[in-house]
Amino acid sequence: MTAAELARRGGLDRTVVSKVEAGERRAGLDTILKIMDELPIEDGGSEYRELQRLARDGLAKGWWEQAEYAGMGERQARTADLECGATIREYQSSMLPGLLQTEAYARHRGQVTLGKGARFDVEATVRGRLRRQQQITGPDGSAYDVVLEPQAIWRLAVPRDVMREQLLHVLSLTTAANVTVRVLPVDARLGDGWVPRNPFAVYDYAEGDLTLVAVDTVSTDLVITVPQQSADYAQMFEVLRNAALSLKASAELIQKAADALAADA
């Protein structure tokens, strides 16, 4: 059934159906139920009831929509939404990712962004960054697997003391069974020309066997919902992961970078 046909049968605008399908619009429960009514699902059956439950859960207000975090910006709120309930695989080329950042690191980066003309509440942004980290540091923390380029740990994107604290924090997180951090060496052999052009994160959701990808650009995140395209990024991540240093060697390199900052102080 085409999106146009589904819209016609459900009495919906075709653009609404297209945006819901692409993950570009958060549909209300009424819209979701109209779509479900036109799909080959037994009305009132177990599958129908489960989809209703998932729809209601998905529409429940997330912590990122609370007033305390209102100023952290739409981009970070969207990231928090994607992270919720997911296992996460992430590749970062030049910065340490938000799920690993210390308060001081996050605050400094926020102030730098403000200085370039952005408009948001730095303190709300920092609170949001720290709240997001509960996704991996809580009692039932989600699996988080990250691959970093060397410049992410060697380049001074923040003051020396802040960077050293940050690197030691990363090392402390790697003691958790659900967090793995690997560094991709400069001479890594990726093969087949698979070279990532942007940082990206792969989100896997157990319910519905769903995989989404967020590609980091300068001004926004491109969210990929097409299964084959998401699978391409997931495959690329595995290539990067397999070419990266071992967990032990990665930790040693991060410790070396932290020690170098202490020696230079």
Give the count of helical stretches.
Answer: 12
For this structure, what is the CATH class of the largest domain? Alpha Beta
Strand content: 5-15%
What spatial form do the alpha-carbon principal axes imply?
globular
Low-confidence stretches: none
Distance between the termini: 64 Å
Strand order of the largest sheet: 3-2-1-4-5-6
Structural class: alpha/beta
How many domains make up the 3D coordinates? 2
What name is given to the CATH topology of the largest domain?
Endonuclease, Chain A
Question: How many strand segments?
Answer: 6
Largest sheet: 6 strands, mixed
Mean pLDDT across every amino acid position: 88
Rg for CA atoms:
21 Å
CATH architectural designation of the largest domain: 2-Layer Sandwich
Helical percentage: 40-55%
Give helix and strand order, one letter per element, not per position. HHHHHEHHHEHHEEEEHH
Textual characterization of the structure:
- The chain is an alpha/beta fold and 265 residues long.
- The protein folds into two domains: 3-59, no CATH class; 71-264, Endonuclease, Chain A (2-Layer Sandwich), CATH 3.30.870.
- The chain is 49% helix and 12% strand.
- The protein is built from twelve helices and six strands.
- A six-stranded mixed beta sheet has the order 3-2-1-4-5-6, with helices on both faces.
- Helix 1 (3-10) packs across helix 2 (14-21) and helix 3 (29-37) packs antiparallel against helix 4 (46-59).
- The longest helix is centred in the last third of the chain and has 18 residues, at 247-264.
- It is globular.
SSE order and pairing:
Blueprint: H1 3-10, H2 14-21, H3 29-37, H4 46-59, H5 74-83, E1 87-92, H6 103-115, H7 122-132, H8 134-137, E2 144-148, H9 151-154, H10 160-173, E3 179-183, E4 200-205, E5 210-216, E6 221-224, H11 227-243, H12 247-264
Parallel strand pairs: 1-2, 2-3
Antiparallel strand pairs: 1-4, 4-5, 5-6
Helix pairs in contact: 1-2, 3-4, 5-7, 6-7, 10-12
